[in-house]
Design a protein that fits this description.
single chain; 3-stranded antiparallel sheet; Cystine Knot Cytokines, subunit B; alpha+beta; 7 strands
């Protein structure tokens, strides 16, 4: 079920040899207050590091994230930025009431097939119609923002097929998203955290048939005229 899938994704998969601890939501909030923006080593020309460019592979164009490393990705700059720094608090899942209140049997199958990947983020944006931002990755200094991504293989497919079908109820698979805080480049020599909607689960939903359909009412019926 989606509850355990979504709770499982609440931990980033951090590639680090220093065993950096993943903080819980309260610790993350405390860490954010103490964390100052990171300054790049030396001036950087141009504004591409703030917004990146819209030149992304086709498979990324309709998404809020891109896990394909661009040829001009400034990894060397990020490695220098993190050189000698103590472990930096990692981005975190922004919990909401919908996520925290989910319930269900983890052993139940909802028949919503999905694909799960653990990929580093290279470009992100809060929403699909906003500019791309460059996500910070510094693998030589053990800072890699790698996230669990789960996407529906067949959105809108019927689900919970093991149960008898109810004529007035239609089931369908739906992609679910949640917000993550991701560290991105800002301006010429700083960083900041932004919230990004990422795919976290593929879950089964249902909708009821319109009341006209339930009672066999058609659109050809002439409405009663008021006196």
């Amino acid at each position: 079920m989606c509850q355990h899938k979504m709770l499982a994704l609440a931990s980033f998969i951090i590639a680090t040899t220093h065993n950096v601890d993943v903080t819980d939501a309260a610790a993350t909030q405390l860490g954010e207050k103490d964390m100052q923006p990171i300054i790049f080593p030396g001036p950087i020309e141009g504004d591409d590091l703030k917004y990146g460019t819209d030149d992304v592979p086709d498979e990324c164009k309709d998404k809020t994230y891109c896990t394909i490393k661009p040829p001009d990705y400034p990894e060397e700059i990020f490695n220098k930025m993190f050189k000698g720094l103590k472990p930096v608090s990692q981005p975190s899942l922004v919990l909401d009431s919908i996520l925290s209140n989910r319930q269900g049997d983890p052993d139940e199958r909802d028949d919503c097939e999905s694909e799960v990947k653990y990929e580093p983020l290279y470009k992100v944006r809060p929403k699909r119609d906003e500019p791309w931002r460059i996500a910070v990755q510094a693998p030589e200094e053990n800072y890699v923002q790698r996230v669990r991504l789960e996407t529906c293989t067949n959105p809108d497919a019927p689900c919970f097929n093991i149960f008898p079908q109810i004529p007035d109820i239609t089931t369908f698979c739906k992609q679910k998203y949640n917000k993550w805080e991701v560290l991105v480049a800002k301006g010429e020599n700083e960083t900041e955290k932004i919230e990004v909607e990422l795919p976290v689960c593929c879950s089964c939903h249902y909708k009821s048939a319109p009341i006209e359909t339930r009672f066999g009412i058609t659109n050809n019926i002439t409405p009663i005229k008021k006196p």
